[in-house]
Design goal:
- Chain A is mainly beta and 109 residues long.
- Chain A has strands at residues 4-7, 10-14, 19-25, 29-37, 43-49, 52-56, 59-64, 69-74, 83-91, 97-99, 103-108.
- Chain A has no helices and eleven strands.
- In chain A, a hairpin with a 5-residue loop joins β4 and β5.
- The model of chain A has no long low-confidence stretch (mean pLDDT 91).
- By secondary structure, chain B is mainly β.
- Chain B has no helices and eleven strands.
- In chain B, a hairpin with a 2-residue loop joins β7 and β8 (73-79).
- The model of chain B has no long low-confidence stretch (mean pLDDT 88).
- The chains are: A mainly beta (109), B mainly beta (114).
- Chain A binds chain B through residues 2, 4, 30-31, 33, 35, 40-45, 48, 50, 86, 88, 90, 92, 94-102, and chain B through 2, 31, 33, 37, 40-43, 45, 48, 50, 55-56, 88, 90, 92, 94, 96, 99-108, 110.
């Protein structure tokens, strides 16, 4: 079983819809990361969280440390948001990252 | 542009070839990583270099050989690879003064072994 589980694996939405991607993890962490990977392969870090909530433009990330759960929300989704979104956690014991398998998002115009 | 540059972006090699992947970061970070991303699987950590010292080797076959000549450069030397080694190889860097630092990724090298 993977230390990080994401849901859903695939998501198709109409432009303008509100989107939620979920991440659950089983290890003690020092931080949780949300990453975005476009079809070309490059990965961009969207958020790094250790508690609470962060917002950047139309993206919002929340984390509940007690429940070991995080969500990534996209408001007013746009076709350019189409990408794979990856949840990753950093083990508090060292410099090990654990990654989810990613959520493939397609936003249709 | 994340500050982490990988070359080449694409590589096709035969099983008897020897090639190297290069990663360069200009962020002043002291830790660099190699990850492998295969289709439908999570990223797998291969190697970690911290202050140029290899601190982690996740049971990676010896046909993959890392080299970190300085804190800005990281290489992955490849020889006698297998078709199942075809994947996206990603380099990342971070500043390891604290345990909650962000990792910055390169664009990756798409490797195909034929």
């Amino acid at each position: 079983k993977n230390e990080v589980e994401q849901s859903p694996q695939n998501l198709t939405a109409q432009e303008g819809e509100f989107i939620t991607i979920n991440c659950s993890y089983s290890v003690g962490i020092s931080a949780l990361h949300w990453l975005q990977q476009h079809p070309g392969g490059g990965i961009v870090s969207l958020f790094m969280l250790s508690s609470g909530k962060k917002k950047h433009g139309r993206l919002i990330a929340t984390i509940n440390i007690q429940e070991k759960h995080s969500s990534l929300h996209i408001t007013a989704s746009h076709p350019r948001d189409s990408a794979v979104y990856i949840c990753a956690v950093r083990d508090h014991n060292g410099n090990q990252f654990y990654f989810g398998t990613g959520t493939s998002l397609t936003v249709i115009p | 542009e994340t500050g982490v540059t990988q070359t080449p972006r694409h590589l096709v090699m035969g099983m008897t070839n020897k090639k190297s992947l290069k990663c360069e970061q200009h962020l002043g970070h002291n830790a660099m990583y190699w990850y492998k991303q295969s289709a439908k699987k999570p990223l797998e950590l291969m190697f970690v270099y911290n202050f140029k010292e290899q601190t982690e080797n996740n049971s990676v076959p010896s046909r993959f050989s890392p080299e970190c000549p300085n804190s800005s450069h990281l290489f992955l030397h490849l020889h006698t690879l297998q078709p199942e080694d075809s994947a996206l190889y990603l380099c990342a860097s971070s500043q390891e003064d604290r345990g909650d630092t962000e990792a910055f990724f390169g664009q990756g090298t798409r490797l195909t072994v034929v």
